[in-house]
């Protein structure tokens, strides 16, 4: 009984590492998954009888490798090429140092970079990463992304086929290529985080878990590859996550930053996030994630909404505009300017952005404009903009929030 | 493993180039071809004549039709190709991103299907 519990614990802690190494040794995702499965079946049979091995991970890799080679040999009767491949794999990987601890850590990075290869579609990158790196089932992924398990399964099958057929290598990119390739990896992590973070409250626990999964993934990458932007993204996620409890009311209504009960913010996550921001900023190659995290840190450190250091936030948006210009960043900068210099100053910027037509379909641009008009007492204009925002939003809590604002206008 | 790099670009670009610009551009292509011959990637490569010279043939229900023009009318046309030998997709992409047209057009990288 005790050995069985050990197998379960080892599965939770080590199965992704073992898989990452088996993919390298066997050169194929499906073969490695089958080998992983067989290795754990063998562990369930043998560990209670023979005792738990000293190095369970190495035992599992070695057993999985052996089982895979054995299975290929048996199938070689029908497909001679498999026999040759089995012999090739056996001789190329016979040295057990091929799965010692250092190589195994590299395998986890290889797996992450392969799942997030830019030759795969973003949807496939996300599904494959959650499946292979995080170990989520296709059902769990489908549930989190509001789609069907068969759609997710199909995405994963296609991605694996492309990895095999176009020969996407199982490797960590060359030093010179890391910044560009890391962008894709961090984008996948950020997509996973956002899907969990901006999901409506109380809708389902799984989506809640998705942010946690993204934070775990961020921690893993930060540990394996401590680049400034990796640390910056982890900080950004922790700082957003720290406000989760205060972001919605008990009934799931949206609470804006300036109205949140700051005593409900998670101080532990804030402390860790702020320390990480500082660490990322000392690196030379920080970028948009670190800058966004730095902005989140300024908010996190303000005891009250009124005590927010708006000049500092505007300054950070200025840097962000140079590092990664976009209309959405410009809009956020305009909102910060409104807080620093008053609503009229902010409105001039928001109107200039809207006049260009860039964010005409973006509900938050119209609700920002509405809010500034309201503060300036230009209620008719505020109403028009709230209504435009309402017509564009697809999220239920945001819709209800805008409706409340519209009702409040009618009272005034 | 073999990969075909298909070069898509706007042919009209050539009309707006001065002779000096066109010569410099061709020079870049010659230098690139020499470089991938030196590195052992090059198997074959050709530039194609403009799409006005293209003819498309198809046969349906035993009836052959021959039409003027390319298979698909698009803003970017297939203007040439390189067939390369590469270790894997990353290696092939390293080669493809050095093809001069990558800056104005786009390069489609397709693995070659091997039949045993």
Strand content of chain A: under 5%
For the biggest β-sheet of chain B, the strand order reads: 2-5-1-6
Q: What's the name of the CATH homologous superfamily of chain B?
A: Dimeric alpha+beta barrel
E-strand count of chain B: 6
Distance between the termini of chain B: 14 Å
The number of helical runs of chain A is 20
Looking at the structure, the CATH topology of chain B is Alpha-Beta Plaits
- Report the top-level CATH class of chain B: Alpha Beta
Oligomer: heterodimer
Structure summary, number of beta strands of chain A: 0
Task: Look at the structure and give the mean pLDDT of chain B.
Answer: 94
Helix content of chain A: over 70%
**Biggest sheet statistics of chain A:** none
Q: C-alpha Rg of chain A, in Å? A: 25 Å
SS element count, helices of chain B: 3
Structural class of chain B: alpha+beta
Largest sheet of chain B: 4 strands, antiparallel
Taking pLDDT < 50 over at least 5 consecutive residues as the criterion, the unreliable ranges of chain B are none
Question: Could you give the order of the helices and strands of chain A?
Answer: HHHHHHHHHHHHHHHHHHHH
> Please, how many domains of chain B?
1
The shape of chain B, in one word, is flat
Top keywords for this entry?
heterodimer; A: 412 residues; mainly alpha; Serine Threonine Protein Phosphatase 5, Tetratricopeptide repeat; 20 helices; B: 116 residues; alpha+beta; Alpha-Beta Plaits; four-stranded antiparallel β-sheet; two-stranded antiparallel ribbon; 28% helix
Can you walk through the features of this model?
Chain A is mainly α. Chain A starts with a helix and ends with a helix. Chain B has one domain: Alpha-Beta Plaits, CATH 3.30.70. Chain B has a 4-stranded antiparallel sheet, with helices on one face. Chain B has a two-stranded antiparallel ribbon with strand order 3-4. Chain B is flat and about 45 Å long. Classes of the chains: A mainly alpha (412), B alpha+beta (116). The interface between A and B is small, with 9 and 8 residues.
């Amino acid at each position: 009984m005790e050995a069985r519990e050990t197998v379960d614990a080892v599965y939770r802690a080590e199965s992704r590492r073992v898989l990452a190494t088996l993919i390298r040794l066997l050169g194929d995702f499906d073969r490695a998954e089958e080998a992983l499965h067989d290795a754990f079946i063998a562990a369930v049979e043998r560990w209670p009888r023979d005792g738990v091995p000293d190095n369970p991970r190495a035992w599992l890799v070695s057993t999985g490798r052996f089982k895979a080679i054995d299975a290929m040999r048996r199938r070689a009767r029908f497909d001679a090429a498999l026999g040759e491949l089995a012999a090739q794999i056996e001789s190329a990987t016979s040295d057990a140092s091929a799965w010692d601890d250092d190589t195994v850590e590299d395998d986890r990075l290889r797996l992450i970079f392969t799942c997030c290869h830019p030759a795969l579609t973003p949807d496939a990158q996300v599904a494959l990463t959650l499946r292979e790196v995080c170990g989520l089932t296709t059902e769990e992924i489908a549930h989190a992304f509001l789609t069907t398990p068969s759609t997710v399964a199909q995405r994963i099958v296609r991605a694996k086929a492309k990895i095999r057929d176009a020969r996407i290598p199982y490797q960590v990119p060359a030093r010179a290529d890391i910044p560009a390739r890391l962008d894709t990896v961090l984008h996948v992590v950020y997509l996973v985080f956002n899907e969990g973070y901006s999901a409506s409250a109380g809708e389902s626990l799984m989506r809640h878990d998705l942010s946690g999964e993204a934070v775990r993934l961020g921690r893993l990458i930060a540990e394996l590859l401590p680049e400034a932007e990796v640390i910056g993204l982890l900080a950004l996620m922790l700082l957003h996550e720290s406000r989760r409890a205060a972001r919605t009311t008990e009934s799931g209504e949206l609470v804006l930053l300036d109205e949140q009960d700051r005593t409900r913010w998670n101080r532990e996550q804030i402390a860790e996030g702020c320390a990480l921001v500082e660490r990322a900023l000392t690196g030379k190659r920080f970028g948009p994630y670190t800058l966004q995290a730095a902005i989140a840190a300024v908010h996190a450190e303000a005891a009250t909404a009124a005590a927010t250091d708006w000049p500092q936030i505007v300054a950070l948006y200025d840097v962000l505009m140079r590092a990664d210009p976009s209309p959405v960043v410009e809009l956020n900068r305009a909102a910060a300017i409104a807080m620093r210099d008053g609503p009229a100053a902010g409105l001039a910027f928001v109107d200039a952005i809207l006049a260009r037509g860039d964010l005409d379909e973006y509900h938050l641009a119209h609700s920002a404009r509405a809010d500034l008009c309201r503060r300036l007492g230009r209620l008719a204009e505020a109403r028009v903009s709230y209504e435009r925002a309402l017509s564009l939003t697809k999220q239920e809590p945001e819709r209800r929030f805008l409706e409340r604002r519209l009702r409040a206008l009618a009272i005034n | 493993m073999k990969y075909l790099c298909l070069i898509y670009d706007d042919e009209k670009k050539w009309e707006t180039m001065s002779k000096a610009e066109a010569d410099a551009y061709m020079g870049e292509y010659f230098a690139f071809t020499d470089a991938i011959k030196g590195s052992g990637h090059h198997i074959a490569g050709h530039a194609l004549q403009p799409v006005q010279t293209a003819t498309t043939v198809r046969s349906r229900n035993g009836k052959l039709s021959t039409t003027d023009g390319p298979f698909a009318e698009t803003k970017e046309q297939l203007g040439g190709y390189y067939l390369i030998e590469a270790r894997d997709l990353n290696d092939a992409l390293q080669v493809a991103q050095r093809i001069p047209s990558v800056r104005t057009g786009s390069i489609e990288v397709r693995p070659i299907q091997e039949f045993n």
